[in-house]
Please model this.
Amino acid sequence: MKKTILLFGIMWIACLASFAQFTFVHLSDMHVSTTPAANSDTNAQYFRCAIKEFASLNPKPSFVLVTGDISDIGNMQPLGMYPAITQHLFPPSLINPAIGAYFIDSAKTIPIYFTPGNHEYWTGFDSIHIPISNDTLFYYPHYITPDTDYVIQTASAVLVCMRSGHDSPYGYPPNPELIMGTGLSNAQIIWLRNILKSNSGKRKIIAMHHPPVNAVGTNSDGSPYTASVIADTATNSLQNNRTNFLNICDSNHVDVVLAGHEHQNVVANRKGDTINENLHGGTRYVQTAAAFNRSFRIITVDPAFVNVSAPMRSCLGTGVNEVNSLSNISVFPNPAEDKLTIVCNQKCEIEIVNPEGQILNKLTSNGIDTTVDLQNLSPGIYIVKLKTEAGITVKKFIKR
Model:
């Protein structure tokens, strides 16, 4: 992938190859834990597992985009815990990395881009376990990416990555839904308007941590979301320039705004009505549930439309041991049409699972090749979960 990066004021522009159509993966809320021992950090281990799956997707994603809360306490000593994540990226151990300098694959063909969340500003907790926050970032730009707004461009699309701010007010009041992101400055609003106007003929995507429009959705497992009270569309949203931002999205025909923060899956219109991921007409405000719960979405962009996948999950199963693949297991062909062959040269319990975690088929292999009929499955991405005496492994396949 050809990539150049330009710096102009507060605007970084990453120019990708001129794809007629391309896909990327949206993640949010990794929440790398605050344990100093990275190898015992479950959230970081899930991330390592997930990026291996993303690197093997077909079609290969052009990049991975993470909208904030990478570290659980981003300004906590030592190092904001970011090395628990960056040890799994390429090249390792970068200091003050440029935007797009990290990749999820050793061949350095799939960059990963980041925007900061409110947890990036946290420094710790007080004596009664209320978060302590400030308004500046230290470890984030040192280990992850510069603290700036920037643009990813292709011939047919523009993706604007923005900072939506720290907690306001600091700490958690009695009603957590009163916590807002500080939102967007006037300078950010002017910059955003100019970027969108100068790309009027392209598909337009904006990414930030806080949801500009909130609505009640579902948890990662598909159950109803009840973690906090969402009183209205502005709950846990942007404190400053929210209405101006929504008006800019309307007037510039923004296709999709990607966010996280609430740890839920939901798509809404400006009024806060929940809508289908791919409803035509108007900006779609998309939240993707937490990456530490293994949630992600695949975004497909072509000159005519921005397609948002239903919520998906990576590395499904019971524990972190699933990150260890078993070498005597293979699944082919991939992509598959009518039948899938699973090779497991030992006794093996097999489950076919959809992206929402529902088990669609269960089989047992006694060391011989197993053929699975796929004719009743709709096209999409599915998971094969295999249990042996050696442990659990998860493989993904595409049904055409």
